[in-house]
Amino acid sequence: MPQHTPEITETGQCMECNGADSLVATLVNSGVEVCFANPGTSEMHFVSALDRIPGMRAVLCLFEGVATGAADGYARMTGKPACTLLHLGPGFANGMANLHNARKGQSPVVNIVGDHATYHERYDAPLTSNVVGFAEAISHWVRRPRSARSVALDAAEAVRAARVAPGQVATLILPADTAWLPAERPAPGLEAPGPAPVYQDAIEGAAKALTNGKKTAILLRGAVLYGDGLNAAGCVAAKTGATLFCDTFTPRMRSGAGAPVVERLPYRGKDVLARLDEFEQLLLVGAESPVSFFAYPGQESWLTPPHCAILTLAHASEDGNSALIRLAEAVDAAPDCPMVELAPPSLPADGPLTAEAAMRIVAALLPENAIVTDEGITSTLPYANMLAQAAPHDYLALTGGSIGGILPLSTGAAVAAPDRKVVCLEGDGSAMYTVQSLWTQARENLDVVTVLYANRSYAVLNQELKLVRAASKGDKALALLDLHNPSLDWVRIAEGLGVEAVRAETTQGFADALRAALSAKGPRLIEAVL
């Protein structure tokens, strides 16, 4: 196939395009500025177009799950989609786990998936698969153009679909011949519908409930946890005596000094039921009623107590921020109300490093305006409340429960916010799913400090073994939950991927290592041996 060089105008439009040129130009026209890529043969014309069409940053990821997880992190911090570039059905399948997390996190993501040329499908070549079926299993919107001339409009519609509130996964499957054949001009960006307004009846109903004397919990999720409505929610709580909650694993939350007090629901279902038992009303803002993460024998899955009435102020697709501001006015809440004051925990005394001591040190040393990403599970969940009075920061959690999401998420967040320090709290078992993220962080010189909790175990699964009443002391069962023999050497792993790393086994050693990492620029890893 001869090299095709289109004419590029001053505005970045291509005059004589092939399908790949029109696709890249349309993505740029639609506001997509970053592509997290793991390309193959079918995507080579897209790769080539990146050199000809200005405005798109290309970030190479060595595994598709890194690309999709990074797109999730980028979307959470910018509110707009990046695109991924994936290779046929197997490449898309490799990225599905973190697309699941993105879907549960309501992140806008646009996947570009190369496929065999339309005329090549009938030969059932080795990489032929039901890529449309794979995509439909996890995407809100899927399209596979049959003509190079329709690629541009399809791309514009993919971005619009991803931007539909509160955020969707859109997948455009691009047959190779639609990439290399001639196409018409790129398409302009299409306007996506924003969040729907909340009816006045819902505002009045919530205000009435909050002033009826019943004890009320307000469960927040989505943009209200970092937008203008968060302060309004704090003022509503201060005025009415309501208690603010968020999900255990929330996509993004403004936390620390200057934010209102928002309590995270416990992880275990029985603990959620116990915590909510004192409330007579549960007001939902962008959230769903809480349910247990898993089913357990003899335990409830539905976690709202029977005596607690459920009301909805705003659905996820509605403008919860504006609704909370209007609700604050309706209950006559003061515009300025008390917020969390800066009071980080003191540093622990020296001694063997524990998970609690590590979190205490992170909270004490956290720089202002950092981004904290958390998949530490058993090492962090019990102690995450220590961050509540730390320096102001954004907190991002693993939303869909598919482990291996946080290293890529941190990568995408760092691309999205290069002027902010990312502090990644990660477990050793989870990190092995997407360890390739460290290489991308090194290549792009991303400002990420990874605290790698090395407890040499899938510790949460040891708990689950008992909770599902499958407890065993047999060697075979316990060996499947253990990471010894051999133990992972995270210093050597990180350094082999281009990231500076140190090991800490004491509280003083960890504090010294974290200070040094926070004062430097670029990726660092601390293996916190527990």
Automatic annotation (TrEMBL):
Cross-referenced CDD domains: TPP_BFDC, TPP_PYR_POX_like
Swiss-Prot/TrEMBL GO biological process terms: small molecule metabolic process
Kinase as UniProt keyword: no
Domain Thiamine pyrophosphate enzyme N-terminal TPP-binding stretches: 18-122
Entries under Pfam families matching the protein: TPP_enzyme_C, TPP_enzyme_N
InterPro entries (alphabetical): THDP-binding, Thiamin_PyroP_enz_TPP-bd_dom, TPP_enz, TPP_enzyme_TPP-bd
Top-level lineage group: Bacteria
Domain Thiamine pyrophosphate enzyme TPP-binding: start-end pairs: 387-527
Keywords (A to Z) from UniProt: Thiamine pyrophosphate
Family according to the record: Belongs to the TPP enzyme family.
Protein name per UniProt: Thiamine pyrophosphate TPP-binding domain-containing protein
